[in-house]
Structures are given as structure tokens and as C-alpha cells.
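Checklist before submission:
- one chain only
- standard amino acids only
- sequence pasted in full

Submission:
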Amino acid sequence: MSRGYWIVRVDVSDPDGYKKYLAANPAAFKKYGARFLVRGGRYETHAGGSRERNVVIEFKDYETALACYHSPEYQHAISERGDSAEVDLIVIEGFDGPQPGA
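Returned file contents:
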């Protein structure tokens, strides 16, 4: 079974308002067993656009990643975020097949 991931890119426009989201989101992440693989950190943009913050979160499978996003706990976190940030978020299924060239 393939793991599920959130790939998130964020520009925060109101750091104080964004803190409400940060305080609210752990309830969903804990409930759904989220594991942060990338949370901020250095980066270089080599093609296309970028945002100031990048996050990759792993879940046990795609269905769990979707369930976390749609959960009442995460929807509450989104409402707490309000207009404090511009966010791109995709939920994507991982790849468990053979690696190219392997």
C-alpha cells in the first residue's frame, strides 16, 4: 500500500494570525498519524515559482492523508488560519514501484 503525502507551500502575510492555525493543526496531525518530512528549511528554486515555506507531511496511506485534510479538526485549523497566509496544498499518493534505472 502506497503512503500518502501532503505537499504544502505557504506565504505568511500575518504571522500573528498564522499562529492560530499553528496552534490548531496538531489535533488533526496527531489523530491521523502525520509525520513531517520537510518543515521549512533551506531551499533553492530552480524552475517555476516558489513560496517562503515548504512542508511535506507523510501519512500511512493516501486515504488517511485525504481523511486528515477533510477532518473536522483540520477544517477548524483552516478556519483559524483565515487570510493570514496564501497556501498551495496537494494530497498525493506515493510511488511504491521499481525506481527508474534500478
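Reviewer check: Residues 34 and 59 are 5 Å apart (CA to CA).
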